[in-house]
Amino acid sequence: MIALFVSTFIKFFFLLTPFFVLSTFLAMTTNYTPRRRTALAIQVTVAVLVVSAVILVIGNFVFEVFGITLDAFRVGTGVLLMLTAVKMVSGAEPDRAEGADNLAVVPLAIPVTVGPATTGALLVMGGDIHSPAELIAVVAGLVTAILLVGAILLSSAAVERIVKKRGLAILSKITGLILAALAAQLIMNGIKAFLV
Question: pTM, whole model, 2 decimals?
């Protein structure tokens, strides 16, 4: 179970694209006071926790209702994840939400942090859970990954001072490369299951 916890933590830490989220967060809060930025970071973290938990839990139900096989969803998720990775590696700039009253849920939690690819990965993970012990390990890994992303957002000002904007761009590209590898693995696993 420890291996499942570690695996889930690592996968979802990169799936949540923390450095891309951080660069988007900084771009959208340039005029915020430190106190307001801290409050927003906490709100985003809570929103991501709630949304991810709900998606993870209803995974099996979604497959049963729509008659979707887990392997088909793996391929679809892998394709979406690959598109996200390409966007990150190509250096696409995050959108600004000028005049938005509350950025925590939309767009920072959804779709910046929990986008289509992350949603798909959560559904696949939910479909792969077969025992209470696995559920505990997966939830613990997911929560740890989300809390770490939240900690990065809480320290956004310090991170920006240390790595500068160029450093954030480089970190986003590295994250994109890792996501591309995860996407390729998902697609290959799905196709392999179809061929067997």
Answer: 0.77
